[in-house]
Structures are given as structure tokens and as C-alpha cells.
Design goal:
Elements: E1 10-12, H1 13-18, H2 20-30, E2 34-38, E3 41-46, H3 49-73, H4 80-92
């Protein structure tokens, strides 16, 4: 996801209501989120669907790494050679 541009990507709810279609196009084109404010406070974020899915993928990957680290620290892992043989046997099927 591209970084937020503070001067372009923070918009009040009233402007969002008036320009919904153009803001959706902006998010889709730039791949940057728009932060929507209400009474001067951030209340919502508009994301491109592809960017949202990418964030979910990253979160799942981080969780998988954390789970693996926990398993290793609990001595629940398997040796590299065993994992390699298992993976290769599944690929060959």
C-alpha cells in the first residue's frame, strides 16, 4: 500500500458524502487509503479492495510466523530434512 499523503488523503465526512464516486476512483487509482474524519477526528478508512486483501495476507503471514516461532520454542517443530521430504513428496503427487 502506498503511504498516506496527509495533504490529500484526509477528508471530512461532508466532503466524502458529496464526492463518493471520485474518492473511490482516487483510492483505486493511487492505492492510497483515504481517512474520513467526523468533527475533526478520524472515524473511518477507505481502502482499495486489492490493498485490503494484501493487508489481510500480510497479517496471516505474520500470524503464521508467530505460530511457527511458538512451536519451535515449545520444541514442537520437525527437523528441516523431514519437512523437506514431506513437502517434496506432496509436490510429486
Amino acid at each position: 500500500m502506498n503511504r498516506l499523503h496527509l495533504d490529500q488523503d484526509i477528508r471530512p465526512l461532508s466532503e466524502f458524502r458529496e464526492r463518493v464516486a471520485s474518492m473511490i476512483q482516487h483510492v483505486h487509482r493511487t492505492h492510497r487509503p483515504i481517512v474520513i474524519t467526523h468533527h475533526g477526528k478520524s472515524t473511518a478508512v477507505l481502502l482499495d479492495v486489492g490493498e485490503y486483501e494484501s493487508l489481510l495476507d500480510r497479517i496471516e503471514l505474520v500470524q503464521d510466523v508467530r505460530d511457527a516461532e511458538m512451536q519451535i520454542s515449545n520444541h514442537e517443530g520437525i527437523p528441516h530434512e523431514t519437512a523437506k521430504k514431506t513437502a517434496l513428496s506432496r509436490i510429486k503427487k
